[in-house]
Design a protein that fits this description.
Radius of gyration: 19 Å
Low-confidence stretches: none
Largest sheet: 4 strands, antiparallel
Number of domains: 1
Helix content: under 10%
Number of helices: 1
Structural class: mainly beta
Order of helices and strands: EEEEEHEEEEE
Length: 143
């Protein structure tokens, strides 16, 4: 059985509690509390009115809704750090040639809570470890 992580959540007036459509979903859907217009090839900030208290060792990863991305060309990505208690604001990008209008209550993105290891960076003069990939990137694996 997996450990249960309790996240405290405060809602501004008109905001919607983040919800999962199915118990097995990774992300909690975030909705817009008011209408929002996203112009073609443009972007807009959508304040969800949702505040979450993410504990140390975790983050909230904002990930596009696949349906919005595939059907409407909309995407929204971001990271909510632990300790941030302000409202979750979503930067919504419209990659399509058509405008998009959200009405109050529409899903705009999802938040996935992920564990984050404590990492300390160590400056070295060279990366000596040999790997299969090496420095190859940006298409180095072919089509």
């Amino acid at each position: 059985m997996m450990e249960h992580l309790a996240i405290k959540c405060k809602l501004d007036d008109g905001a919607f509690l983040p919800e999962k459509a199915y118990d097995t979903d990774a992300g909690f859907d975030l909705r817009t509390p008011r209408p929002a217009f996203v112009p073609a090839k443009g972007s807009v900030l959508i304040d969800t009115g949702v505040h979450v208290l993410i504990p140390p060792g975790y983050c909230g990863f904002l990930k596009s809704k696949s349906g919005l991305n595939m059907r409407a060309g909309l995407r929204a990505e971001g990271v909510i750090d632990s300790g941030y208690t302000g409202s979750v604001v979503v930067k919504m990008y419209n990659d399509s040639d058509g405008d998009h209008t959200f009405i109050a209550g529409d899903k705009v993105t999802q938040i996935v809570f992920l564990p984050i290891p404590e990492v300390k960076l160590e400056v070295v003069s060279e990366i000596e470890e040999k790997t299969d990939r090496g420095a190859g990137g940006f298409g180095s694996t072919g089509r």
